[in-house]
């Protein structure tokens, strides 16, 4: 527990190149996956479920039929009003989690990192991976969340933009973003996080590796990613013990 409090999911916070426990990353991705699941159902309900609340007790047969021979009823209906307050707070928290893991300092503010680090410490052997690719993957996640925040709060974002440019760049009285954008991004985010949590496949890391390959980004030593540091320490201890035993044997023969 003391090691979790000291280093969280980092191998050593004082290293120049920071390495992170991929087991803890996968556990955390599984926890944050619930945000994507909730948001996907929220958007599905908003876009593909009727926008009207119909009171079936007030339905009255009008006596007329449409062209398809369906009976036309007269009803009392109320248009649904959506309040995105909870979704907005949830997205802000998700954005905070994406950004928190990028630094050894801000990581200490994340409750999911503490939980994931503790569970990983108790359940599995650590798999050390460089932080840089994960940071790139979380940047993609943060961008997706930021886009969804704009969709749920178009007037707030429009006011910010219009204030900066000192004239109306975006309308403040209507939705200017197609609902296909957040709906698609949420399902993309859901897929990415599911692959990370269940399969251990980090799409953002693969994109990062591709950008490194073409020379746009620099990467940590991939050959060092899965070094078994505990095994190296054990072998060093065995070597030192053998050297000490050999030296002691030599001294005994000499005496």
From TrEMBL:
<feature type="domain" description="DUF4395">
    <location>
        <begin position="86"/>
        <end position="212"/>
    </location>
</feature>
<dbReference type="InterPro" id="IPR025508">
    <property type="entry name" value="DUF4395"/>
</dbReference>
<keyword id="KW-0812">Transmembrane</keyword>
<keyword id="KW-0472">Membrane</keyword>
<feature type="transmembrane region" description="Helical">
    <location>
        <begin position="90"/>
        <end position="115"/>
    </location>
</feature>
<protein>
    <recommendedName>
        <fullName>DUF4395 domain-containing protein</fullName>
    </recommendedName>
</protein>
<feature type="transmembrane region" description="Helical">
    <location>
        <begin position="179"/>
        <end position="203"/>
    </location>
</feature>
<feature type="transmembrane region" description="Helical">
    <location>
        <begin position="136"/>
        <end position="152"/>
    </location>
</feature>
<feature type="transmembrane region" description="Helical">
    <location>
        <begin position="31"/>
        <end position="54"/>
    </location>
</feature>
<dbReference type="Pfam" id="PF14340">
    <property type="entry name" value="DUF4395"/>
</dbReference>
<keyword id="KW-1133">Transmembrane helix</keyword>
